[in-house]
Amino acid sequence: MIAPFVLDTNFFIQAHRIHYPMDVVPSFWLKIKDLAEKGIIVSIDKVKDEIHLNKDDLTVWCDENMPKDFFRETDVVIKEYVAVTGWANSKSTHYNLAALNEFLDSTEADAWLVAYSLANGCMIVTHETSEPNRKSKVKIPDVCSPFGINCVNTIEMFRYLGERF
């Protein structure tokens, strides 16, 4: 089986609010449920926490449709998390303090997503794009690059998997 894809919070929120509203594109959500049940896509507990902040239809849908083990625990990737946060701290002359503080906040999902991917050989599915010169935000693809982790967007993931619906 292919190493699973690990989904960023923005995968869910942008799909729900912008690209694939549940009432207009139900086939997208059926596909996500199917891929989750097959273990091809997963996410992490911090993403679940971020989704639950909104307390909306997406929260309900995830609770009712995602397998119990879909949102993986991050407490098992502490070693990798230390490596990821160490990398971020080493960039303190590049990123501004607010950007680093946001990325290093242990309740934020981004650093944990990279750590989980590093530990498990996953690709990250995110809508963030690389902006290596940006100082005001630490972007997931820019953190992934030095660790050899691939980032793709939703459509790239579907193409990689050969999914059509």
Characterise this structure.
It is a single chain. The chain is α/β, with parallel strands linked by helices. It is built from nine helices and five strands; from the N terminus they run βααβααβαααβαβα. It has helices at residues 9-19, 26-37, 45-52, 57-65, 78-90, 97-104, 109-120, 140-147, 154-161; strands at residues 5-7, 41-44, 71-72, 123-125, 151-152. A five-stranded parallel sheet has the order 3-2-1-4-5. Strand 4 (123-125), helix 8 (140-147) and strand 5 (151-152) form a beta-alpha-beta unit.
Q: Runs with pLDDT <50, length 5+?
A: none
Q: Work out the oligomeric state of the chains in this entry.
A: single chain
Shape: globular
How much strand content do the residues show? 5-15%
Number-wise, the strands total: 5
Termini Cα gap: 21 Å
Structural class: alpha/beta
What is the tally of helical segments? Answer: 9
Q: Write down the secondary-structure element order.
A: EHHEHHEHHHEHEH
What gyration radius follows from the Cα positions, in whole Å?
16 Å
**What order do the strands of the largest sheet run in, or round the barrel if closed?**
3-2-1-4-5
For the largest beta-sheet, the strand count, sense and barrel status come to:
5 strands, parallel
Fraction of residues in helix: 40-55%
